[in-house]
Every structure is written in structure tokens, then in C-alpha cells.
Write a structure and sequence with these properties.
Two copies of one chain form a homodimer. Chain A is α/β, with parallel strands linked by helices. Chain A has 15 helices and twelve strands. In chain A, the strands form four sheets. A six-stranded mixed beta sheet of chain A has the order 4-3-5-8-7-9, with helices on both faces. The first copy, chain A, has a two-stranded antiparallel sheet with strand order 1-2. The longest helix of chain A has 30 residues.
Chain lengths: ~450, ~450
């Protein structure tokens, strides 16, 4: 390339250089070429080689980037794994994108306007009486069993796989944790994975769910909503229901934060009790109007931020809306018990590092800061992509809380976890030919049974 | 670069070209330069530009490959997501690699030798009597409730996250499915995520678990083992326990496959019942010797392959071992009920494509091929990396089975899934001011209650 160009330049040039006539034979041409100084020839060749090498290098880099040439040398297992991941993702996308073109609900999203009214359902005004009559007619479905009111624990998660792969694993562990507590205390569980009302999704989804469950389970006396990121950490503690015989809602919080500071975190709706009664239906009806997504929720968010201390600017959430409702409408507070004598909700950050100290000094059954009833991983969001805390801190802490609780369950079987971060267990009691001695001593239900609260 | 080289060549050259003396001033030098034909100058410049561009391009490509320069232009979200994945993987690796150097159990793996004897625990020989005495002393923990024997459903999965991310999501859904069935039928659940015996891991892990649970839960009459990949698909059907009053084990299978063909798939240990009694403890003791990993399990595998029709060559599994045990030791079969009048275990492949047909023609409560009680996803292994069937087929089928079952649960609440592959639901009954009418009509427990079998 270079030499040709130089040659042509020579031909074109007119000042004092020997020119090679086109008609001159090959010999003349090579004679002309040999007229180039040897150094320049070397230099030209060197240039050519440089450019060739550079071009070759660039080609390789580009190929590597585009067709993954580097992958040809990875193992077959990697290729299969990659294929598995791609297949899985494709199927997930298909599942997630399900739309029914004939379904009017599946049309373009339509938000309620600011002047529209939202309703969870037709107003029911005789629920207490209706329920009482039903219970009398159905003695095989009593609302009190062995002197204890019937509880239904409600929790749930999104119907589709978590954005973060590890999220589903922790949802699974958190569910096992709830199954264990509820088995020990005779509580039924509903795990919801459905959106009952497309207006009220996300944290608002619990409202239509609570209504639907209350009306479908008249035998249930108390509905207990619990977030999927909350774990039981005291397997012995029982809710002291007799305290609440004159109340219809029990929620963890601090009265001074609520009434004096009007703080947006005065109460926590991650774990609360709701009596199955008319009052609760009415509260839900008053609570829900800030929920419907779109302009209603946006505007409501502004009102909440303006009125509640410390609240950042974002759309209305169920917790802020409840606080605002209780502060602005007088009729509710008399039936709401703001509980903080035990951790119906226990914010994880101040608790998870103290488990070893708790094991050393205290024992299950206390339910408070000495041995928290519930450890709630607010802000960790393992199912989503963006939590408010470092991932490592969250995952390790959830692992610790899970194992701290699991040890209390495994105790009956003679095992415990090797460490609070370990999924593996070790034996703490040998097998015996008299296992029933251990049952009498270590079964939590026996301990709970002997301290049953008198019926309210 | 090029021009300098050419210039030096000119200087060195001696044939016929005007040379520039080093002492010549700038003017002379530029005069010498202007002596180069204009075309060659352009050509040289062009060469230089080419090389500069090439070098610049290469630099960018290399940088992009090494320091991920390309990421600077991708969204912040991608970078955060990548970080999240890396963090998660790092933490998982840490959790999985937990080892306690002070723990003798954590030393290098030691297998039992072929001449060693394995035992699940010290031999208990008076369990029936011990249990009877205990039940009499503890009337608050009866083994029969409302005329029905007390069941404990046992299932579980590995303590660490699945190899395949989607696996945990399906474990979660399968657990919700079991929670729903068990809530409707008053059955308690134990979800095991621990290895009770390091010799017996994998499919053998259920043996020490069954023993441990029997001995720790004397109030339980029947223990029901169910694999994590088995789903309830008939939410109404109840196990006809009176059929089994003279039996201690109920397992799905086919007598001719068992006795005549000695087939390795004559029975399925993915879903079976085990009465809490001495006979069962004895069976476990006879069943377990083929289980301990290492030479024992390997050798046992060879015996099983040699004796059971169709069995591939691999280490001993619990199902083949049970079949072999029942065929080679006479004393067991009289108490084993080989059940195939309903799908205590229903192999998924022949069932999942027929759900729409079932919905059209039949109704829940049949439990057999018309409306299978249990659909069992043998071979799909969503938690692992390598299933025996295409991933898409498995995931879609599990989704369909889950929704087919979930529809039966949602029916009480007035909803169903939009399609058998859809996680989304639609309303099938309007909200009403008389919800208890629907409870009476649609609550499965009311239907089950009215058809309670007489106590055996």
C-alpha cells in the first residue's frame, strides 16, 4: 500500500526525480524500485507489518466482544448452565407477560381520578350480628378453641419470581419460620400470592385481602397481618389476648411519636392484629381511599408528607395513611391498642447483633427487647432489586434471625444450628430409648399449654 | 513518525536526491521538505492518521474489555444490579462454605465401611405401649380429633439456596399449595431444612427425619411424607383412612409391577403414609442399612440394579431399597397397603395436559385420574441444575398444576386464575352484602365436614 502510493507519487512528481515511463518493462520497474533507498524500503515494510498486526489485533478484539469467541474454551457445563438460565428467563418472561386480550380488565391501565370514589366493596353494616348468628348455627366452627380465640395469620408475596434470585429463598425460609410458630400455637395460615384488587397493589394489597378474609372466615376471631420480611424470633411467646378484650386493633408503635410528634413511623403496619368485626370493616373503608394508584395516591402522598413528621415525598403508603386517619378522625383510637410492651414488630437493626447476648442471659417467652417476639427486616427487600441497606448486612442478619428462631424449634428434636450463620445443624442431645421424657420437657406446646390465658 | 523516518532516509540516501545538511537553517529544512512531492506528503499524512485512528480504536477496545469502560454509558441501575448479584453470590458462598474447625463432625468425610453396621438410633421395642400410656396421661394432646386421626405432613428442601434460581420460587409455591390443603383438612406441617444425619442425605434424609418426628410427636397417628416437588391438585379429596385400619404403611404403586415384575418403580416413596407405631420403627431400621453414603450405598446400588427390573446402575436410593426389602423379607407386606385407587402420588406427565378436560367434565373430590389428588413432578428437579425433562415443559406444567389447585382455593374468595399458566387472577363472583351465603356454599371444609368417615 505504502510503496504503491510512493511509487505513484514518484510518477506524478515532476521535480527532478527520475520517472518511470508506463511503457517501461518490468525490469525497468524493478530498477526504479531499487532506486528507493534500502532504508526506506525497510521502513515501508515495517510500517506495513505494523498496520497488519494492528488490524489483526483489532479484529480479534471485536470478534471476542461480539460472538464471544472466548467462550469456545469454557466448559460444557458452563454452556449448559447458560442455556438453562436463558430458558428459565424466557419462560419467566412469558409467564409474567400473560395478558388476555378478551378480558376488559386487561386493557390499558386506567387510574381513578381525583373526584372518583373508591370502595373495597358494598357496604356491610350488620357484620357483628350476621357473624354471631352464623357461629351459633355452626358449632363445628367455633371462634374460640380451648379457651383461646381463633387466629388466622395472613402473609404473602408477589405471584412472580423475585427480581433478585435470593429473594425467593428467603421468602421460603420466612414461610417455614411462620409455619413453625403457627404449628406450635394452633394458628392457621393463609399465604396470599394474588392481587385481589388491581387498584390496590403493593403495600396496599393487604386491605382488600383483609376484608375478603374476614368475610370468608367468620370462624376467625383475630386476623393477624404479617409482612413476608418479618420473622418470629420468640417461639414460646404468645400474644396476651386478654389485654385486648375491649380493642379491635393491636399495632406496635409509640403513643408519643403518634400524638405529639405525628411521626410517619409512629406505628408499624408490618405486623398487626385486626378483630373480625364491623368496626374493622369500617376502618378498612376509611383507610382505603388514599390507596388507589394514580392521581389519588399521588395527591394523598403529598397530604401525608405535609402532615406527618419526617415523611419523605412519595406516593401514599398504607402505614402513613393509617397514622393520618387515626390522628384526623377521632372515632377510631378508643379501639386501637398501641402496643410496645413486646415486639409485635421488632425493627431488626437494633436486635440482630444481640442474639448471642440474649442466648447467654435470657430465654424464650419474653417477647421484648430481651428476646424479641418478631424481628422485622424493614427496608431489606430481598425480593426486589434495591433495598435501603447493604445486601450483605441484610442477608447475614436474616440468616441469623432465622437460625436463632430455628434453634428453638430444633430443640425438641435434639439439634441446633452450628452457628447463627450456619445452615448446618449439630446434635445437642443423644438419641434415647425413652424419647417421651424429652417430649414432656422440651415441647413448647406443653409449656404454652400450662400457661393458657383465661378466656376474655 | 512516518515523515521523520522518510526524512532520515532521505538524509542517509545518497543516490541522486537533494540532501539537507544538518547545519542548514529552518528555511533550508522546509525547503528540503517542500522538495518532497506534494502527493507523497499527503500520502504520508494519510498513513499517520490511519495509524493514529487504529491505535486509538484498539486502545478503546482494550480498555472496554478490561476496566469495563463501556459500563460508564450504561445506566446506574445495571451497575447496581451487577453489584447486587456479585454481593449475593459472595454471601451465598460464605454461607455454604460454613465449617467449624473445632467440630469433630466437620472433619474430612469418613464413610462407613462395608462391614460396619449403621443404626438410626438405639433400638426401641416398646413404642406402642409407651405411646399409649403417654396419650392417656396427656388428654389435651389426643391422637384423634373430631373422629379423625391426627396427621402430620412432612416435607422439606435443602438448607441452602437452589442451584437454579427458579427452584426456590417453585419450592415456595409448592409449600403454599401444601399449606392450603392442610389448612382445609386440619393437618399440621413440618417443613424440614436440616440434615439430621450426615450419613443419610439426599433422598435418604427422610428416614432419620421420620423416626425423629414419630418419637417427638406421640400425638400424631399418621406421618405423611411428601416430596417438595409434589403438589396437591384435589383440594377436596380426603384420604380414606378407614381403609387402612389394619395397615401401618400406605404407598402408591401397582401389585403386579411389584410382585411379578419386581420393577424398580413399582412403588413411589414421594408421597406415603406411615403410622406412628413400633412396626414403623422396625421397618425404618430394616430399610436404612442400604442408605449410608460411600461403599455401603454403592454396593447396595449394585444389588438393587441386579434384582429390580429396569433399574439403571447408580447408588442405592430409598425407593428401590424399600421395594427390595418388601420383596425379600416376608414379614412386612401384610401391613403395607399398595394403593392405586386414587393418586396418592400422580406422575405428572400423563396428567398436566388434561386439566382443562378435567375442569370441563369432572369436579374436585375424586382424587383419581379424573381429578388427581397429587400431581408429582418426578424428574423435573427445579432446584437443581439438571432435570430429566426439558426445563420449559417442567416449569409450565408446574405452573399449570399450581394454578389448577389454587383455583379450588380461590373459589371461596370469588376468584380464579385467568388461565392455567397465569399468575394473575380474575373475579368470578361479585362482592355481596351477604358473604356468609357464599361461605356456606363454597367453603371446602363444610363439604368435607359433612362427609367425615366414621372413626376406625
Amino acid at each position: 500500500m505504502g510503496s504503491e502510493g510512493a511509487f505513484s507519487a514518484q510518477k506524478r512528481g515532476s521535480g527532478g526525480l527520475p520517472t518511470a515511463n508506463a511503457a517501461v518493462n518490468g525490469g525497468a520497474r524493478s530498477r526504479a524500485a531499487s532506486l528507493l533507498p534500502r532504508g526506506r524500503q525497510i521502513h515501508k515494510t515495517f510500517n506495513n507489518i505494523k498496520i497488519t498486526i494492528l488490524c489483526g489485533f483489532v479484529t480479534i478484539l471485536v470478534l471476542r466482544g461480539t460472538i464471544g469467541l472466548g467462550n469456545l474454551v469454557s466448559s460444557e457445563a458452563d454452556a449448559e448452565n447458560q442455556h438453562l438460565i436463558e430458558e428459565t428467563n424466557r419462560i419467566l418472561a412469558e409467564i409474567r407477560s400473560d395478558k388476555d386480550p378478551t378480558d376488559p380488565d386487561d386493557g390499558p391501565e386506567q387510574f381513578l381520578g381525583l373526584n372518583d370514589t373508591f370502595s373495597l366493596g358494598p357496604r356491610i353494616s350488620t357484620w357483628d350480628q350476621d357473624r354471631k348468628v352464623w357461629l351459633e348455627k355452626n358449632p363445628q366452627f367455633p371462634s374460640y378453641v380451648n379457651g383461646k380465640p381463633r387466629f388466622l395469620l395472613v402473609t404473602g408475596s408477589q405471584p412472580t419470581p423475585c427480581d433478585n434470585a435470593i429473594g425467593d429463598h428467603y421468602l421460603l425460609k420466612a414461610l417455614k419460620n411462620k409455619i413453625d410458630y403457627c404449628r406450635l400455637h394452633g394458628i392457621e395460615i393463609v399465604y396470599n400470592m394474588a392481587h385481589l384488587d388491581k387498584e390496590l397493589a403493593g403495600y396496599w394489597a393487604k386491605l382488600p385481602l383483609l376484608r375478603r378474609l374476614m368475610l370468608s372466615h367468620p370462624e376467625v376471631e383475630w386476623i393477624w397481618w404479617m409482612d413476608s420480611d418479618a420473622l418470629f424470633t420468640d417461639m414460646v411467646f404468645e400474644i396476651p389476648v386478654s389485654k385486648y378484650k375491649d380493642h379491635n386493633m393491636v399495632i406496635h408503635g409509640y403513643p408519643d411519636l403518634l400524638f405529639e410528634q405525628k411521626s410517619w413511623i409512629a406505628l408499624n403496619t408490618g405486623s398487626f392484629l385486626f378483630r373480625n368485626c364491623q368496626w374493622s370493616l369500617d376502618l378498612l373503608d376509611s383507610w382505603s381511599p388514599m390507596g388507589p394508584k394514580g392521581p389519588l395516591r399521588e395527591e394523598a402522598g403529598k397530604i401525608l408528607t405535609a402532615n406527618l413528621k419526617g415523611r419523605p415525598a412519595f406516593e401514599a403508603d398504607d402505614q402513613s395513611a393509617l397514622i393520618y386517619l387515626l390522628l384526623s378522625q377521632e372515632q377510631w383510637m378508643s379501639k386501637v391498642f398501641v402496643e410496645n410492651s413486646f415486639y409485635l414488630h421488632g425493627f431488626w437493626e437494633g436486635l440482630v447483633d444481640r442474639y448471642e447476648e440474649m442466648i447467654e442471659k435470657y430465654h424464650p417467652g419474653l417477647g421484648d427487647e430481651r428476646w424479641p417476639f418478631v424481628t422485622h427486616f424493614v427496608g431489606c427487600k430481598p425480593c426486589g432489586s434495591y433495598g435501603d441497606y447493604p445486601v450483605e448486612r441484610c442477608l447475614k442478619s436474616m440468616e441469623r434471625a432465622f437460625n436463632f428462631a430455628d434453634n428453638q424449634v430444633l430443640n425438641l428434636y435434639g439439634f441446633r444450628h452450628r452457628g447463627l450463620v450456619s445452615p448446618n445443624i449439630k446434635r445437642i442431645r443423644n438419641e434415647t430409648v425413652a424419647p417421651l421424657v424429652n417430649v414432656d420437657q422440651f415441647d413448647i406446646r406443653h409449656a404454652a399449654h400450662h400457661t393458657t390465658e383465661p378466656q376474655s
